[in-house]
């Protein structure tokens, strides 16, 4: 037998990790590179809907059918990432009855369990629905945590021997004799786990085949080998509410339009979205009117949203693609289907395939098809197992535990922790040491933070997406410094400072479009707290290392004061 | 809403039972929704730093956790449980007034506690039975007051108290309050009830140069303690209000619900509240204002009732309820009368005054000190803003007794430092604690007003 092929996968979103896991499980050597954190691109910027397929049941029945199939698969293999909330398509008086019937019919045609309920019944399920909602169609929509899903896929790929490199940006494709033979990456902090301040460097990664799974960034990778991949990035805004106004996914039952969905997500509810084509997936305007539109329009379905607290808004770009000859004007008309572009067939450049388009719910199915394609290149006949083998964390588990007896945790904190960790709960939460709550809003304890640090190094944003720490209503006001402190011991002060700065920046960024009412109060408190207790407004240490030895050690238990030759402010003992 | 029958309505989570007609109750369910309250919290922890229980009990996670944090964490469809630590909250409600952002903390605690007791607490447990008995003090008191001498003996009979502590978890450290030989209501009936009060009021109006038919009438919510244990407070209230020309009525009433809220016995509290609201709202319709001499009773009628229950007339009752001295300070020149008065005899004392937490929540913590400042023969010294620590039934629980006394330490110390050796407060259970910690006799401000202006 020839040696095992080595496949390089570019892109650490759902598609990339899905492919990496699938190929690794089939026994191939896999290296996945991602320019930022896992989920850095579009995956980390979606509303967390596990589609039933209902949204596509009229316009795109092929996608709808795929969605309901994958919806069932993910409930099974990714149970710790999914909350089966159920969903509804609600009809207001001004919405078309004809479309309502088409939607119902479409769901039936696609095998999506759908039932009509009256307005009263819908309000029994969701008391905050508008009183004039006439009726609704219930469907098996759900909520899914894209962060947890991607992290679990990457962990599974690693268990099967894959190498996962985050913060490693592809700077060039290696092309020899008119064939792609690998890629060149720039590591932000050296290979392996990210540690701030570690010297980076470039690495040439030779591969037998390259898969470009960079979504909206696919064109940029293509350019490196002179390929024209015309992805049409389309931005959408999502606004996060502080609490769940609904426990069911609420869709507006009308053909298409902005601001037509509310997804309950963990402790929050996410409002979405818009659909507007942009030039550059990394540089596009994020405007307040888009957020206002979400709240205003969705208040027609759920009136209390008008007065409710928003904690954050974020924008994502869909990696839409259509064959150039279709020529849709409006991005909402572009298909949500995915395209596999074999550059050998398409551009006479062997060695690489790009995958564009597609949607999160069907990431596994896309991975399966790409993996089949890649295996075909090498004449490997290995069955796909990703639909049957649960992800790490989703093996049999129950959230009904005695949290205090087993983990020493208060009931809602224990419950949230176990829901996030799934079958890994015992391994992570049963610790010998003290296990204080680090993030109070989301109920994240030290043990879970330490587990995440163990996976991802000093990157606190990577800790955040694994644990939800700092994603609650104070947006890190109370916990970012605590999270940073958890790095202490293993990492030096300068690493901790850099990691802390980066997390804070990221937390502030998303609040720019939530600064009114209660979240403005929160921001004011956070600022004051950070300025007055952490020198965050103007740090005299200013990046220079602090001479901690110059501080005294305080009063010890015997009542003696510390060494006499140092002062508590780091100055000289006589106060000069 | 057309009647005051018990409903299945549960403020914690909307009832989605089959008989439930959501369109009918929808407008009301908005009022009970705690989402806006959870939205108001910005995690500053001022509630935690003001919580007297958190200060002494390291296992108690504090009001922020019990309220907005837990509410938000358990907000999903499936059966999240309430953490049992909510039973350690004493319901002093200091967090409510501490919060700079208007989070309805005590409402969150009360609903969570109600849910915990309803859904999770073992109804056969000693703790449940003990809490049920403690919170239904009115029932015990009404039986005991039929045979007050026997009750006074039995309730403080050593071996019986030892047995109560061992089997029920009621501390044997405290003396049970004495039951009066004649309850307030017995006195009131014997005195001629409302008719007698009207005559007295008219007489006072003539003396005061007011029209005989002046529209001055109040409905007295005496509560259980003034009725069964300290009728002298009730009598003082009647005398003082009549002196100022008010007709007093003493309508049918049950427990205000205060001890029931604190123990999560919301069904009991609702049953009592329905009687109270029903009789009070009829009177409010006729132009009466509701007056309480116990600050926890007025707190319950004003704040907890509309926050927790949906009973016809509840908002009207809440917005027309006052504490007795508060009411007089609003409508009468009671301060002027007191300035020109002089007290001699039994109440010519220096008083160590403690403002109850529930008085603080109603903005009444300075009223006694301000009112009596220029009263000749009397001195009133505020002993500070700490909590007395007993919080109704909290300090009666065997497992909370030590903590209750630790909370009370600051108040005891300040009382010792104060000049007087008589205590004063509006709250019956604070009075128990003050007496227990210092041995002082404790009086109610109404008694002093009576001594100053009536006698």
Can you give a write-up of this model?
The complex is a heterodimer of chains A (576) and B (455). By secondary structure, chain A is α+β, with helices and mostly antiparallel strands. Chain A folds into 3 domains: 6-41 and 147-231 and 336-377, FAD/NAD(P)-binding domain; 81-143 and 233-317, D-Amino Acid Oxidase, Chain A, domain 2; 431-548, no CATH class. In chain A, 32% of the residues lie in helices and 20% in strands. Chain A contains 17 helices and 23 strands. In chain A, strands 5, 6, 7, 14, 15, 16, 17, 18 and 19 form a 9-stranded mixed sheet that branches. Chain A has a 6-stranded mixed sheet with strand order 9-2-1-13-21-20. Chain A has a 3-stranded antiparallel sheet with strand order 3-8-4. In chain A, strand 22 (437-439) and strand 23 form a beta hairpin. The radius of gyration of chain A is 25 Å and the shape is globular. Residues 570-576 of chain A have low confidence and may be disordered. Chain B has 455 residues and is of the alpha/beta class. Chain B folds into 4 domains: 34-120, Alpha-helical ferredoxin (Fumarate Reductase Iron-sulfur Protein, Chain B, domain 2, Orthogonal Bundle); 126-168, no CATH class; 184-331; 340-454, 3-Layer(aba) Sandwich (Rossmann fold). Chain B is 54% helix and 6% strand. Chain B has helices at residues 22-32, 35-40, 46-50, 52-56, 63-73, 94-98, 105-120, 126-135, 137-144, 148-155, 158-168, 184-191, 193-208, 223-228, 231-243, 258-262, 266-285, 295-308, 314-319, 324-331, 334-339, 357-361, 367-371, 401-417, 428-438, 445-454, and strands at 217-221, 247-249, 289-292, 321-323, 350-353, 379-382, 422-424, 441-443. Chain B has a 4-stranded parallel sheet, with helices on both faces. In chain B, strands 6-5-7-8 form a 4-stranded parallel sheet. Chains A and B meet through helix 4, helix 11 and helix 17 of A and helix 1, helix 2 and helix 5 of B. Chain B: This is sn-glycerol-3-phosphate dehydrogenase subunit C.
């Amino acid at each position: 037998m020839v040696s095992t092929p080595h496949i390089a996968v570019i892109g650490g979103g759902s598609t990339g990790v899905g492919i990496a896991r699938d190929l690794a499980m089939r026994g191939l050597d896999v290296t996945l590179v991602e320019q930022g954190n896992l989920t850095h691109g579009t995956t980390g910027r979606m509303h967390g809907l596990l589609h039933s397929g209902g949204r596509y049941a009229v316009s795109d029945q092929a996608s709808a059918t795929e969605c309901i199939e994958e919806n069932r698969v993910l409930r099974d293999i990714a149970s710790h990432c999914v909350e089966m909330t159920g969903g509804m398509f609600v009809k207001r008086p001004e919405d078309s009855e004809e479309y309502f019937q088409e939607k119902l019919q479409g769901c039936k045609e696609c095998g999506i369990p759908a039932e009509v309920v009256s307005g009263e019944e819908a309000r029994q399920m969701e008391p905050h629905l508008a009183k004039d909602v006439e009726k609704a169609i219930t469907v098996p929509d759900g909520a899914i945590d894209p962060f947890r899903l991607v992290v679990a896929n990457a962990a599974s790929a690693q268990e099967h021997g894959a190498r996962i490199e985050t913060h490693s940006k592809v700077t060039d494709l290696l092309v020899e004799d008119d064939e792609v033979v690998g890629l060149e990456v720039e590591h932000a902090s050296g290979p392996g786990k990210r540690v701030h301040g570690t010297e980076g460097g470039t690495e040439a990664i030779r591969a037998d085949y390259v898969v470009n799974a960079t979504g909206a960034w696919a064109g940029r990778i293509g350019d490196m080998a002179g390929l024209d991949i015309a992805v049409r990035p389309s931005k959408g805004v999502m606004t996060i509410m502080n609490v769940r106004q609904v426990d069911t996914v609420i869709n507006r039952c009308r053909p298409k339009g902005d601001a037509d969905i509310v997804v309950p997500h963990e402790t929050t509810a996410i409002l979405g979205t818009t659909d507007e084509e942009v030039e550059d997936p990394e540089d596009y305007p994020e405007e307040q009117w888009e957020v206002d539109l979400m709240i205003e329009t969705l208040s027609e379905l759920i009136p209390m949203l008008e007065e409710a607290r928003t904690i954050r808004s974020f924008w994502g770009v869909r990696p839409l693609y259509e064959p150039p000859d279709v020529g849709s004007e409006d991005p909402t008309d572009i298909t949500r289907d995915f395209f596999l572009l074999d550059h050998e067939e398409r551009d006479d450049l062997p060695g690489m395939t790009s995958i564009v388009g597609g949607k999160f719910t069907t990431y596994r199915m896309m991975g399966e098809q790409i993996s089949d394609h890649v295996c075909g290149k090498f004449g490997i006949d290995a069955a796909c197992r990703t639909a049957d083998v649960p992800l790490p964390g989703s093996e049999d588990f129950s959230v009904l535990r005695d949290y205090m007896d087993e983990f020493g945790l208060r009931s809602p904190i224990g419950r949230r922790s176990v829901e996030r960790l799934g079958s890994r709960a015992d391994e992570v939460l049963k610790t010998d040491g003290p296990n204080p709550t680090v993030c109070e809003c989301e109920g994240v304890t030290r043990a879970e933070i330490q587990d995440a640090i163990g996976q991802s190094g000093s990157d606190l944003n990577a800790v955040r997406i694994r644990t939800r720490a700092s994603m609650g209503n104070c947006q890190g006001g109370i916990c970012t410094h605590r999270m940073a402190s958890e790095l202490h011991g293993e990492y030096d002060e300068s690493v901790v400072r850099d990691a802390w700065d980066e997390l804070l920046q990221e937390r502030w960024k998303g609040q720019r479009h939530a600064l009114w009412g209660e979240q403005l109060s929160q921001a004011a408190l956070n600022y004051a707290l950070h300025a007055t207790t952490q020198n965050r407004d103007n740090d005299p240490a200013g990046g220079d290392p602090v001479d901690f030895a110059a501080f005294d050690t305080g009063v010890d238990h015997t009542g003696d004061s510390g060494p006499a030759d140092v002062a508590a402010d780091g100055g000289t003992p006589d106060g000069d | 809403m057309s009647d005051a029958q018990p409903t299945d309505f549960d403020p914690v989570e909307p009832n989605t039972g089959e008989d439930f007609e959501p369109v009918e109750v929808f407008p009301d369910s908005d009022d009970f929704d705690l989402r806006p309250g959870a939205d108001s919290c910005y995690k500053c922890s001022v509630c935690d730093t003001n919580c007297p229980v958190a200060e002494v009990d390291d296992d108690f996670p504090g009001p922020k956790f019990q309220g907005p944090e837990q509410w938000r964490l358990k907000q999903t469809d499936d059966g999240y449980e309430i953490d049992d630590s909510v039973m350690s909250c004493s319901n002093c409600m200091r967090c409510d007034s501490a919060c700079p952002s208007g989070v309805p903390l005590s409402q969150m605690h009360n609903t969570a506690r109600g849910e915990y007791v309803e859904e999770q607490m073992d109804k056969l447990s000693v703790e449940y039975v003990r809490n049920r008995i403690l919170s239904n003090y009115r029932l015990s008191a009404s039986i005991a007051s039929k045979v007050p001498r026997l009750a006074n003996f039995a309730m403080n009979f050593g071996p019986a108290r030892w047995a109560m502590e061992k089997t029920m978890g009621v501390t044997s450290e405290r003396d049970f309050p004495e039951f009066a030989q004649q309850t307030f209501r017995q006195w009131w009936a014997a005195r001629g009830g409302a008719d007698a009060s009207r005559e007295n009021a008219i007489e006072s109006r003539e003396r005061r140069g007011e029209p005989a038919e002046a529209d001055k009438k109040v409905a007295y919510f005496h509560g259980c303690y003034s009725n069964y244990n300290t009728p002298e407070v009730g009598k003082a209230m009647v005398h003082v209000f009549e002196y100022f020309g008010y007709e007093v009525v003493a309508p049918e009433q049950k427990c205000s619900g205060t001890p029931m809220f604190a123990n999560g016995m919301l069904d009991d509290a609702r049953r009592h509240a329905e009687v109270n609201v029903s009789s009070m709202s009829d009177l409010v319709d006729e132009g009466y204002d509701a007056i309480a001499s116990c600050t926890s009773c007025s707190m319950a009628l004003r704040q907890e009732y509309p926050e927790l229950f949906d009973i016809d007339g509840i908002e009207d009752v809440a917005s027309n309820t006052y504490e007795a001295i508060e009411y007089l300070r609003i409508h009468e020149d009671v301060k002027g009368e007191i300035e020109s008065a002089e007290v001699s005899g039994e109440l010519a004392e220096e008083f160590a005054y403690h403002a109850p937490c529930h008085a603080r929540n109603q903005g009444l913590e300075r009223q006694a000190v301000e009112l009596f400042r220029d009263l000749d023969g009397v001195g009133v010294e505020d002993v500070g803003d700490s909590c007395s620590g007993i919080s109704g039934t909290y300090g009666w629980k065997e497992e909370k007794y030590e903590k209750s006394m630790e909370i009370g330490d600051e108040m005891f110390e300040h009382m010792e430092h104060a000049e007087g050796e008589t205590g004063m407060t509006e709250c019956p259970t604070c009075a128990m604690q003050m007496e227990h910690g210092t041995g002082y006799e404790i009086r109610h401000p109404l008694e002093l007003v009576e001594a100053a202006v009536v006698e």
